[in-house]
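Reading a protein record of the kind used here takes little practice once its layout is understood. An example of such a record is reproduced below.
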Amino acid sequence: MEISRVNYNPDQSSRYEDRGAGENKAQQFRSERVEENELDIGQLLGVIWRGKWFIAFCAVIALGIGWYYATRVVVPKYAAESRLLLQVRDQNVVDLESVISGVGKDQASLNTEVEIMQSRGLIEQLVRDLELTEDPEFNRLLREPSPYSSEVLLNRLRQLLGRQVVVRGEPDEQVVMNLTLRAAQNAIAVTAERGTYLFRIRVTTENRAKSKLMANRLAEIYLDDQIRTKFSATEYAVNWLSQRVTELEAELEEKENAIQDINTQSNMISTAALEALNLRVRESRARLQVVEARQARTRERLAALTSMQGTELYATMAAESDDPQLEELASSAESGDSGAQAAFASRVATLISRDQSALAQQQPELDRLQSAHDELVNEMEARTADRAKADNLLREAETTRVLYETFLARLKETSIQIGLQQADSRILSDASSGFRVEPKTNRILTMAFLLGATFAVAILMLRHFMRDGFRTADELEAATGLTVVGQVPKMPIRRRKGLLDYLVRNPTSAASEAVRNIRTSVLLSNVDNPPRVIMSTSSVPGEGKTTLAIAFSHNLSGLGKRVLLIEGDVRRRTFKNYFRQPGGGGLYQVIAGTLSLDEALIQDPELGFDVLMGDNASINAADLFASERFREFMKFVREQYDFVVIDTPPVLVVPDARVLGHYVDAIMYAVHWDRTPKSQVQDGVRQLSSVGLTVNGLVLSQLDPKRMRRYGYGGKYGAYAGYGRRYYNT
């Protein structure tokens, strides 16, 4: 075979530019669609609607389980209620509120009474009165152990291991009481009705009569406890008051004796006498102060005259001495009269001598007055202290007398009150026969139904959000921004060799019509220059690209055109599983020139198209497809055939598809329905775009019509809708 070296397509570069621009638009469209479909409430509602039967099934199953639990598993329980009324009025004959107070009327007091009714002491008395420790309902140690309890399971394990079985011993009395108390407390509920002084005691057990008995008995125990508490408090008050009255009586007698002793032992004076003595003290202090002032004046004059004696300060000494004679001599002495000066000096000496004598005479008098004053002060202080002590004792005695009389009166009142104690509450209504409260069948059934439906919805949502494949063409287009040209259902064949027989014998089947639609879309994608070389590829193996290539070639042959199918996936070479007639050679031998194209082809009139299988090559497949000889080969087959279909390896596995894509006019990209992850499809399209290739059409392959209808998509897509079945012959 001679292959001329001619360029494959002169418009190839411009087509690459168009493809690049188209890819940019596709990416923009894909981003916009993804943003618009981030949260589709309608889609979520559609998921729920499509799974309505599954939801109904789960709800019915849960309803059955709830019914079985409510009627066969749960032990019925019955409640009985007794009501108590807190006495609002004070009915005591004697007012003893200051001695012992009853129950308050505020909310805190009511809550306290509620806690008292549920206290350990009252419940323990109830347990002892009704012998609840002998009741298996409250003493779980009396019940037969469950076959699934930890004790039984451990004994079974010990038996299997050949060890000694542990036998339950006799429980301690306190342990039994504690277990019974906890069970009884759990069975009793006490509440205070809002806005009233009413208490409600509710007891829930497995027996109507038992509930009634426990509710009534607890109310009686509570009333008895109130009376007992008040009696004990009153008795304690009587004892305390008796002791205190005795102490106060002794204390009062002691203080009165002390006052009498003070009056006897000391010269107690009256208030008037104490005031007269105080007046004498003041007069004595005044006389003492006069003498002290006179002595101080004499001492000052003496000091002044003594200091100025012998000087010529005649006027100053005369003024200081306060002596008229000295004042007369001062004027003459200052004028220089020697006789007057001598007389002045003599008079000064006389005055100094007189003052010294006066000081000597004043000191004894001062001492006498000071001694008399001190005696009066001491007497005054002693009499004042005695008076204050007596007054204090009188006041204390009076206070003690008042306390004594008060406590004595309270003692008499409290002694009378001992026989008049009443409870602060009374039973308003006894408990009647218990009424059934558990199980609440309607509530259990409602909750079971809702839980079952919720569980089913959760599973549907989980499946929906965990799904990473494509179920509709809209989803595929939204994720890639490319057009879906067809959807091919799964063909009912068991082996690959049955594919051609199915296509030949079922030309109007849904699969054949789907491929025919793909053919129409691909050929009409460019009316002016219809594609002649078409490539079929996918992201990963197993997506149906080879089946699509074979079915597409068979469909093209129905147009009466010459069609060549090339196995470009030379690494796997799966064509031998589809065609019974072995080929005379392979693609590599034709490229290498060791075999002609006619010799290598599979030509079967029943097929309607030629097939060129792949074969082993001594060089890498990508290098083979990138060689110049392969380019000339493609130019040759383009001239010899009307259509050339190439089945290529997956894009994400090897680079062969990206190399072969430069020789074709259109690319069909197969995506396995509901299986191929979105990321793989996007990566495959992106890799083709990175070398300037644009996918002309996406194909959803291997659709399952039954599953589509179950998901709710069948009614939207022709071949899989109910109205479309009459058009196809499967």
The radius of gyration is 63 Å. The longest strand covers residues 77-86. The CA atoms of residues 37 and 426 lie 70 Å apart.
